[in-house]
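Much of our argument rests on the idea that a fold can be written as discrete symbols. In the encoding step, the backbone of a single protein was reduced to a row of integers, each denoting a local shape. This step matters because it turns folding into a mapping between discrete strings. For completeness, the protein is quoted in full, as a sequence line and a line of structure tokens:
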Amino acid sequence: MSTSPISLTTRAERWPIAGTFAISRGAKTEAAVVVAELSDGRHRGRGECVPYARYGETVETVLAAIEAMRPRIAGGLDRLALQQAMPAGAARNAIDCAFWDLEAKRTGQPAHELAGTAEPQPLVTAYTISLATPDKMAAAAARAADRKLLKVKLGGPDDPELIAAVRRAAPAAELIVDANEGWTSRDLEKNLAACAAAGVTLIEQPLPDGHDDVLSSFNHPVPICADESVHARASLAALQGKYDAVNIKLDKTGGLTEALATVNEAARLGLTVMVGCMVATSLAIAPAVLVAQQAGIVDLDGALLLARDRLYPLRYEGSHVHPPSRALWG
């Protein structure tokens, strides 16, 4: 195995979205990502992250945080030491996943072997229906009605009408809902009832983080999953009694290393695991496919929402996402 010093390079990229991706906090037409590359002169490892404004991240701050690690990486900082050297978040995610990819390239072992997990298999993934008018959401759902699992973005005053319209357009699909913190305690009961009537099987983050204590005493007919309220392992204990499930994303955990540990901790606490992603290229989503092997619900359609993807993309076939080729990552 090479023992040459590791060099770090970074870059920001923008990838157009096919149409518009809309949630309760706004809409966007492109995915802004940051890529970190680690090289020992012979092998190259890559990781991609998505700066998340919800947590105060921008492309510029994430680039700066990654660049600040250059001297320490050149000085011998490894993946395990990285976990203490940087906080959880998008910047650490890009470097962490680049370390995994570099190690796989150096050793000739696929990432799942390095992680000590079984060989990854194709998984059913959700496909997202963006927030829009009832007619537009129904039309989008009708086009995707043959998919096994649809994720419906809600978070507005017309949510009961929206979820009913989607159900009529896709009568056979399993539906999950993501409100992106867009509900309040005043409309919670009404919206939950509408989701139950539509046969929704899971609702993500209905209330804002920090304003969700009511969930601990609220009899909800549909299981509720934390998203914005969950980050890495340390955040899980406070969610018990309020949430039934947690959505683990690598940009929140700060990489694959912590994501794998967070899955294990969630299982210990009796929380169902969902694995999600941001809208990004296949490079960002590839490591999450490894984590998703242990998940009850998989939401890894981020690359499918782009107008184009990078070379050696993930293979999406029907409702399934396949594990990445080693040319892409790991």
Observations:
- The chain is about 30% helix and 20% strand.
